[in-house]
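Cross-check.
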Amino acid sequence: MLFKTSRMDFKDLYDDLHNLTPATGLNTILDVMEENNTVYAVEESEKGMTLTHYLSLRSRTLTPAEARTLLQPVMEGVALLHKSGLIHRGICPDNILLPIDGTARLTGYGTLALRTGGSELKSQLYPGYAAPEQYSAAEFSGRYTDVYALAAVCYKMVTGQTPVAAPQRKVRDSLESAHSLEAGVPTWFSQVLACALRLDPARRMQTVPELMSALTDPNVANAMFERGDNQISTRKIMAVSLVVIFILAVLLFWSLLGGRSDDKPTPISTPAENSEEGASSYEEIETIPDLVGKRYLTEIKDSDLYAGYRIVMTEQNSSEVAQGVVISQDPLAGTLKTEENQIIRLVVSKGPNLVEMPDILGFTQANAIKQLDERGIQYRMQVVENDGTFAEGCVAKTDVVAGTKFDAGKTIVNVFIAGERDDTLVASTASSEEETDSGDSQAE
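Predicted model, tokenized:
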């Protein structure tokens, strides 16, 4: 009975994938067939490497922009799966392929039973990337399950560390923020990952498009947290206001009763006293100012407006934000000011990251990747026909000339890798050369 059910689930899943693919970010299912009471699925095979292998070759972690660019097609593919009513449940670096002639693709498709702990099948989960609800057959998985995994993959890419496994986090949540592990990760980006990695599915980010938008634009991320986390601050403000109103009402009522019984004049507070009380009330509900988008040197530094705060500034390259302008802040604007958060940490733009294109012609693919990664250059590998001029697997050409300076945050360099030696092309080239030599001899 278990075999029959598993076979039906497998066929239904791969039939849906066969109808859905080819699609951006998803590895293609070429065919699904049944033979000898067994279902077979034929999946496209691509030359390239897994994301796990790629990360092991790098000498440094990816920047948030690089991670976002690399994962973009995969996130688009997962969003398409969700739109079709499918959940992947197995997203991890091992299941993300990086073909040398195209964009990243997701593979590793599996049935619900395979991706759920405690089911009738022996489960196959990926510690650090599997969401907590996958470890129990009594809990439900959904789109938010894949959101958790995508955020975990992004966390690995920008910090170099695999997130703490969900079962361990449920005992004691020791997951460090991406910003604390890698100072170059902006606070807002780190907070988005933390929101998508929440253990409680109800409090977690729910959809992939929401995750994509929040990871792309700090303004979207800040607005999301103002709607969500900062609602607590609003409730605190309302609570403080109600308490103040209640105390004033009690004092007024008490003074009126006291005036009638003792015929004593009701004490009248002086304007100075009123102003002091009002000031203390306002201090209780003071919120963090919005500094994002302001120029640090002319609008923030040494300004009397922010004399009550300690401003800590770090710089970061940005292709979108002008030099000297604040990209993000921590705490977020609108957060209730307390004695503990009087320090505001700002990330200020250094402007675009201009780099010089290295000469990598003739380099092996691995050495070319190392040279580009060391300079923070984004790139796309493509295989081209090889007439024997270049060694197989080596760089034949690039679309950016060596020595050119460009914005690494906006430019993606196309790197063309020589494919397998094509003997037909080699023979054709040799034949043409012989004909040319023969013609020259006859002319003499």
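The domain at 287-349 is CATH 3.30.10.20 (Trypsin Inhibitor V; Chain A). The mean pLDDT is 81. Passed to J.P. for a second look.
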